[in-house]
Amino acid sequence: MQETLTLGRPDDFHLHLRDGAALASVIPFTARQFGRALVMPNLKPPVTTVMAANSYRDRILKAVPKDGDFSPQMTLYLTDNTPVDEVGRVADSEFVQAFKYYPAGATTNSDSGVSALKNVYRVLEAMQQMGVILCIHGEMTDPATDVFDREALFVDGPLQQITRDFPDLKVVVEHITTTEAADFVTDAGINVAATITPQHLLYNRSSIFSGGIRPHFYCLPILKREAHRQSLLKAATSGSAKFFLGTDSAPHAKNSKEACCGAAGCFTSHAALELYAEAFDSVGALAKLNDFASRFGAKFYGLPRNAGEVTLKRQTWTPPDEYAFGDETIVPLTVGRSLGWKLV
Ligand code: DOR
Ligand code: ZN
Fold this sequence. Notes:
The structure is a single chain. The protein has 11 helices and 13 strands. It is of the alpha/beta class. The strands form 3 sheets. It has an 8-stranded parallel beta sheet, sandwiched between helices. Strands 1-10-13 form a 3-stranded antiparallel beta sheet, covered by helices on one side. Helix 3 (about 85-90) packs parallel to helix 4 (about 120-130). It is globular. Bound molecules: (4S)-2,6-dioxohexahydropyrimidine-4-carboxylic acid and zinc ion (ZN). Zinc ion binds near residues 16, 248 and 250.
């Protein structure tokens, strides 16, 4: 049995860090595992300009532990009113790597998102022309749509439309959760890729209800049936450069998750690589994790590979049930269980 696993220093291409004291609480977990992370812009108010992204990046850097060499990479929140000029500023920016497309109302802080695709067509045209990447939260938002069908219907509708009307646009379908999304990305051109989270590789929708309702398994897009989990594992371990690591670690205070209307998001930064190692190990594919975690994402984003390495060893340990989160606490996805891999 393989006892250790060494990877090139990896990247997390989908991360929520929040701001202020919450940011200071969570950033050390990511900085110790990853060389870079692509930071999502869904703050209140959202990060919509390169100028705002640069000052958010400065705040993140101030919160990074001093001994690290972590480099935050930024995204801008696409709105109905994003000016075409902003695309040029992103293309010229060293650290802003993409626009994030939230359909309005799809998830946490998405009220300022795009209310109709046609509202952003001129911006998408400019992005296609300048090679700027579009990261997509791929879910329908019509409240009449069943929550478990939202991604598959988005793939079949708006996503088909975007890739048809902008065939050269670089697109990352974020946190894919279904066979339909995995197949779509596999069959699309090389300009279309996807991130996959640890929770969607390890758990299915029954996990949310095992023995009672478990709010720390609730995220959006929601966990799906086991057959979908199997499709995601297959895609992640396929060796295709279209699928790469993005945790979507999304911290929310304990009392906003364990509530009568609990917030969506799983916190995984404390053990992200360990969770991915467990998922890849479960199908005998540890040898595929280096490309998924440390090469394919950087290649898609046109970034050099990080210097350095990280090593995991096979060791049973139990993460804390809570971590500090500003003045509050946060409960990680791993609450109540042990892990079989540990970052050295
Ligand atoms: O579960 C989620 N939480 N999904 C998202 O898309 C947003 C995220 C958050 O910001 O909490
Ligand atoms: Zn996210």
